[in-house]
Design brief:
two-stranded antiparallel sheet; 10-stranded mixed beta sheet; 7 helices; alpha+beta; Rossmann fold; elongated; single chain
């Protein structure tokens, strides 16, 4: 029995085209998911993370039976259905209280994930004052040696750079810089997150005085479990498209400060062929002329 296939509508075509690989990818969507059991701390944390990630976020307020480190198929299902590459799952168990699991996907497969426990928290609603606008990119600050030396902390830093990245931009407008998110690694297992709004105040000169005011949320995280990315999957995820690769210029390098350094190769110099000024003293003379000149000089000295 033959089955008739309905032609794709314009909406379906746009759906599949939006999921195709692109040179400049769309902003990553994050799924905010509640686990089967949560606490008020976890609920407030998921709510605040959703508020900071909007509009590139989807918040599932209903509870879901999901265990990230035990069932990757359900994570991949959520990712494929909602076309999301980032996930945050909040749970609360006796062994792991106030738990947040941060997951990153590539091609709807689990790339890496890590688990952070909330030891102390201050939600955004508990701090009075101005809040950031929807869709604004924050200034991220990472303090601590662990972000450069510890592989798990390096993965956490890379994840939050992805989480708050948003739309790609070529320039920065200082007036649009509304808030700052600071991460401080006190140790390899202790990370402190603080969020502030940027206030531009009068200073009496052209340059304003910049002050930071607490906005929230504030968290004291403890690093629990982590699954690092597989080598082959990480290589595919970090592959740079050919269109974005800059053509390599020979003998030109850029140092850590952004200065361009070039190397020039000079061929063999033949000094005897260089055209010099035509002076009598530089002309080549025969051996007889030089002997005659020496004898004349000696005679003059003897007469003196």
């Amino acid at each position: 029995m033959l089955r008739t296939v309905k032609p794709k509508t314009a909406r379906t075509k746009r759906f599949f085209k939006n999921r195709e690989s692109k040179v400049h990818e769309n902003p990553k969507t994050a799924l905010i998911v509640h686990g089967s059991t949560t606490s008020q701390v976890v609920t407030d944390a998921l709510k605040d993370l959703y508020a900071m990630k909007r509009p590139n976020a989807i918040h599932f307020t209903k509870k879901n039976e999901i265990k990230p480190f035990e069932d990757e198929e359900k994570l991949e299902f959520f990712s494929n259905k909602n076309d999301a590459s980032l996930m945050v799952v909040g749970t609360h168990l006796k062994k792991r209280p106030h738990n947040l699991t941060f997951i990153r996907m590539f091609n709807h497969q689990v790339l890496d994930m890590f688990e952070l426990g909330v030891e102390k928290s201050t939600s955004m609603s508990q701090i009075k004052g101005t809040k950031c606008s929807v869709g604004m990119k924050p200034l991220l600050v990472f303090n601590g040696e662990a972000f450069d030396s510890n592989p798990t902390c390096q993965s956490i830093k890379n994840y939050f750079l992805d989480f708050f990245n948003g739309d790609a931009s070529d320039a920065v407008n200082l007036n649009g810089l509304e808030y700052v998110v600071s991460f401080t690694a006190l140790s390899e297992t202790k990370i402190v997150m603080r969020t502030y709004t940027v206030q531009m105040k009068k200073s009496g000169v052209k340059t304003p005085r910049v002050e930071l005011e607490e906005m929230g949320p504030h968290y004291d995280f403890v690093v629990r479990r982590a699954n690092a990315a597989k080598a082959d999957l990480w290589k595919a995820a970090t592959k740079v498209p050919t269109e974005l690769k800059k053509p390599k210029v020979k003998n030109v390098n850029v140092d850590e400060m952004g200065d361009k350094l070039g190397r020039i190769h000079v061929g063999q110099q033949e000094l005897h062929k260089i055209q010099t000024r035509k002076m009598k003293g530089l002309k080549k003379r025969a051996a007889d002329d030089s002997d005659e000149e020496e004898s004349t000089n000696k005679k003059q000295k003897s007469d003196d």
